[in-house]
């Protein structure tokens, strides 16, 4: 049997999981090529801890090659164009012809889409932005902090709420409780509307516990840099002293130019298999759009949130399906739409939300009570993810041993 060429574009969570799973399941007569433009992988869930000063850059970044299984060919190059007819990928180093293509390019940030935002705002949605915001928070001496969800959709639906609570906690620890206000603005009617009203109310209570003032249904129009004012559609403007933004998101240029994206710039996929409308071309993670049951207002259907937990699960499904087809045996799993999120609340506490996003008639989500165990769980997952691939198993053993003491779960590995 002739060897197959599987090309994966993007070395984030989805790309790494897909590459490692394929290499594990396929004989070495088949090539697994991972194309990633950044030599250093940054663990995005830890950007919030970088923002608060609880992590350094070195603690949350790794060389991409250390996170891949032996036999994965890591190509440090930028994917520049797709020819879906010829099954060809052009990169900044060379061209690749594929038998199977997995797109895991994530979402692009576009702060320039809202006038004044790029000039005025800090953000924790990039590695560099989180580091700069850390320095700004350390020198901040009081006033109004505005954290703004600038448009929909955005990745990691819990992150703005976590950021608001962590900023409030950071300022409290610096003795600024009585000299600083933290405000969270969003165009949504509640926190994470896809999760339903009960979870939204629970998150609002978490915000209130940290003194965060929550402002739903505020759609940002522009930022007046000179006066430090946020201008909202149909709302009173708001003057800030420090602006933190979740920038507008858009689908990756490569997918848009290749004709894979819809009119909003996101890639539609079959929800159980992640197959695009092109044969042997899959897309996963933040770049995709997947409808889920229900609507958060009459004319706006719900879609699956953009989150690493889904990219991880989708990558496993795609890799296993490709491997089963290539070798002619194995399982053909489907993506079940299950997901979870640990919501950092400051003071080394976190909540835990888990649910079925494909449940009928609407997603069914549960939020567990705040506790230190969920924060500890997030720390353990971070340490496991960033461990070199060759020591993943040992890292998992250590995590579960610690987990047995910290989380009250048995060590099973």
Structural description of this entry:
- The chain has helices at 13-25, 47-52, 117-120, 127-139, 159-173, 197-209, 253-257, 308-327, 372-386, 392-406, and strands at residues 5-9, 31-36, 40-42, 61-63, 72-76, 79-83, 88-91, 95-97, 100-103, 108-109, 143-149, 180-185, 212-215, 220-224, 229-232, 238-239, 242-246, 249-250, 267-268, 281-283, 288-289, 291-297, 300-303, 338-346, 349-356, 364-371.
- It contains 10 helices and 26 strands.
- The strands form 9 sheets. It has a 5-stranded parallel beta sheet with strand order 5-2-1-9-20, with helices on one face. A 4-stranded parallel beta sheet has the order 13-12-11-17. Strands 6-7-8 form a 3-stranded antiparallel beta sheet.
- The protein is of the alpha/beta class and 413 residues long.
- The model is unreliable at 403-413 (pLDDT under 50).
- The chain folds into 2 domains: 5-107 and 251-337, FAD/NAD(P)-binding domain; 109-248, FAD/NAD(P)-binding domain (3-Layer(bba) Sandwich).
- A hairpin with a 2-residue loop joins strand 22 (291-297) and strand 23.
């Amino acid at each position: 049997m002739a060897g197959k060429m599987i090309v994966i574009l993007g070395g984030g969570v989805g790309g790494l999981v897909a590459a490692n799973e394929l290499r594990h399941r396929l004989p070495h007569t088949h090539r697994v090529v991972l194309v990633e433009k950044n030599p250093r992988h940054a663990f995005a869930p830890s950007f919030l801890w970088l923002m608060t000063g609880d992590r350094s850059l070195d603690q949350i970044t790794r060389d991409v090659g250390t996170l891949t299984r032996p036999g994965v060919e890591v190509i440090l190059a930028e994917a520049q164009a797709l020819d879906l007819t010829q099954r060809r990928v052009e990169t900044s180093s060379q061209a690749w012809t594929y038998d199977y293509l997995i797109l895991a390019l994530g979402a692009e940030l576009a702060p320039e889409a809202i006038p004044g935002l790029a000039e005025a705002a800090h953000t924790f949605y990039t590695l560099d932005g989180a580091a700069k915001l850390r320095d700004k928070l350390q020198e901040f001496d009081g006033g109004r902090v505005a954290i703004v969800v600038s448009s929909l959709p955005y990745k990691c639906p819990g992150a703005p709420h976590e950021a608001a609570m962590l900023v409030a906690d950071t300022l409290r620890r610096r003795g600024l409780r009585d000299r600083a206000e933290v405000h969270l603005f969003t165009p949504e009617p509640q926190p994470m509307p896809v999760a339903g009203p009960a979870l939204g109310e629970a998150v609002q209570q978490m915000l209130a516990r940290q003194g965060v003032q929550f402002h739903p249904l505020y759609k940002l129009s522009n930022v007046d840099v000179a006066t430090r004012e946020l201008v909202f559609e149909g709302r009173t403007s708001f003057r800030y002293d420090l602006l933190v933004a979740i920038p507008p998101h858009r689908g990756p240029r490569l997918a848009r130019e290749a004709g894979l994206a819809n009119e909003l710039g996101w890639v539609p996929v079959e929800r159980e298999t992640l197959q695009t409308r092109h044969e042997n071309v899959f897309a996963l993670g933040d770049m995709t759009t997947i409808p889920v049951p229900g609507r958060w207002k009459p004319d706006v259907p719900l879609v699956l949130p953009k989150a690493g937990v889904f990219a991880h699960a989708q990558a496993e499904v795609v890799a296993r399906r490709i491997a089963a087809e290539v070798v002619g045996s194995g399982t053909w799993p489907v993506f079940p739409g299950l997901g979870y999120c640990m919501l950092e609340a400051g003071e080394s506490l976190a909540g835990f939300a888990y649910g079925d996003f494909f449940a009928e008639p609407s997603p069914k989500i549960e939020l567990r009570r705040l506790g230190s165990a969920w924060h500890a769980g997030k720390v353990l997952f971070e340490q496991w993810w960033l461990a070199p691939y060759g020591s993943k198993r040992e890292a998992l053993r250590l995590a579960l041993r610690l987990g047995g003491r910290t989380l009250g779960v048995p060590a099973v590995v």
